Amino acid sequence: MAPVQTTGSDLTRQQWGFAFALVTSLFFTWGFAYGLLDVLNAHFQQVFGISKLQSTLLQLAYFGAYFVWAPFAGWFMRKVGYKKGIHIGLGLYSLGAIFFWPSATYEKYGGFVGCTFVIGCGLSTLEVAANSYISVLGTPQYAAMRLNFSQGFQGVASFAGPLIASRWFFQGENAYTLGTVQWVYLAVAVLGVVLNILFYFCPLPEIGEDALAAEIHGVGLADDEGPFYKQYRCVFGFVAQTAYTGAQVTVASFAVNYLEAQGVGIDYSKASQLFSFCQITFTVGRFIGVAILHWIDPAVLLTFYGLCCFIFCLCVSQLPGYSGIGCLFALFFFESICYPNIFTLGTKNLGRHTKKGSGLIVMGVGGGAWFPPAQGGLADRATTRRSYLVPMAGYIAMTIYAAGLVVDQWIKRGEVYVRNMDELTARREAVASAYPTTALILNPPAGLVVKSGLAGDSEKVSDEELVEDA
């Protein structure tokens, strides 16, 4: 039976708060997995004696799963709803995590790569569900604020992973063994099972595409008309998400190597700890972004942050020592709001295309599979510091997308202005023909109108002001 559809505005405050809190808990789940992934990248280089390029197979498997699986996840949720999609995602997540145990026991790097792919399939399903659900769980105006707030808890979990690693992966005998990896991922699997049980017993209102389409049509919007491939905001959002995620992943994947290689006496344990501080900076930046988005348009803010990411990434690739490390922290700060802003901008007012569009944008996370091998190859041939020229290209593409949306918004505002001026002129002429004595008031000399018909209260204002008042 198809789930009963509703929209965020149909929920009571208690239902809305419960659904928001429950789905937000999922962001912690994949934030923790992602934080551990970046540290495993460096840990496996020591344990298995592999190159930086070979270690990026983990990123290729993790983010390649998004590219392969996310479209299926979007299709599946269109058929059965968000809740069953969440169950599937958590099931795959737990299954992949539990098989880290035999991979560690038999010391098979290929086994870790395969398990990481399964975890990626589970997390891509959860991202299609959770990101989309949070975005539509309320008014479109504050979608970016809601998603940044929920994604902030992903950041909380992402710095917990490196902190655990700095204590258990890189100290003493653990630096060259896989025993602690077994126990950490066993705990991850248990977390997935517990969340799955909670979602089974908890009601979760279904936000349906038909209801979303009716909601935007009710306020005069028809953005979802036409085939999906003509939803250009979403299609180019996929390109921007691919470029940005690829850049973000490469920056994080080689952060431990970068910090260790800066020549200031930082070992791998200390580098892992500093990386966790980078993730804390990222998380703080995301919560600050929630406040800023209350006042600034998401596309404008994304344009500014994208430009800052480009500048600081260039500095990271060129500056040695603590100067480069400081720029790396700044880069993590300005990355903070980029992913959720791209998602909400790309899926805005999609109506009947919402779940398909969510699947496409999450598919863009697959960019994390393509950038790390390029950076790893450059790091092996040159230096880790110079390899940070690779993610810089991703920030350029993201900034172009955001700036394009800003320009598009201004053009549309101009169209609305012209349309309102035409409507205003037509109304003036209609009233003037019916009431000739008002002709001078309604059709004054160019550039001026009379705001009040009473001689004692007359005030000269521009046409623009009258249109704004209208």
UniProtKB/TrEMBL annotation:
It comes from the Eukaryota. Pfam families: MFS_1. Signal peptide: none annotated. It is a multi-pass membrane protein. This is MFS general substrate transporter. InterPro entries: MFS (IPR011701), MFS_trans_sf (IPR036259), MFS_TsgA-like (IPR050375). It is found in: Cell inner membrane. The chain crosses the membrane at residues 16-37, 57-76, 85-103, 109-130, 151-170, 182-202, 274-296, 302-334, 355-372, 392-411. One of its GO terms (cellular component) is plasma membrane. Keywords: Cell membrane, Membrane, Transmembrane, Transmembrane helix. It comes from Coniophora puteana (strain RWD-64-598) (Brown rot fungus). CDD domains: MFS_FucP_like (cd17394). GO terms for molecular function: transmembrane transporter activity. The keyword Membrane applies.
